[in-house]
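# nightly structure sweep
# worker-07 picked up a monomer target from the shared queue
# config: single-sequence mode, recycle default, output format = structure tokens
# input follows
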Amino acid sequence: MSCYSIKTTPIKGKYQETPFEAISDNNKDFVWDKIIDLFAQKGLPIKIIDRSSGLIISEPSKLTWTYEDNNGKPYEPNSYVVIQKVSYSNMKKGGLTAIVTGEWNIRIKAEAEKTRVNINLVNIKRELAGIQNSSIPLTVGKEAVSTGVFEKIIFDLIK
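# output follows
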């Protein structure tokens, strides 16, 4: 076995640290239908769906991801998550590729004449492509953060 060292680069940028939240002037049924339609259009499988409590939780789903540049800006600004960069001392030029998955946890709640929507990305994992049993849980807020791109798609739909 060859020896190697692992180097990680902390996430520097400013990202929201709490679940994303939006208020819609539309009723709960409208908001619910728009979010379910979005899940169908994006091919996001649903693990839990409970209309009465307003809860939608996706199955672990592939996430578009990126690293940050030296200034703390995402290389790919349309990615759903930024992950901490990891490099290995004996890694070939070009590095490893990863598959990043996570679960979307959405709560839709009617309030007076508006609807509150909370969106939280949980259970983020990185699997190194081509390496068996390499699934690595990422600590949200330290090693992986949502960029807000997916949440903005939802918020734009429910306005």
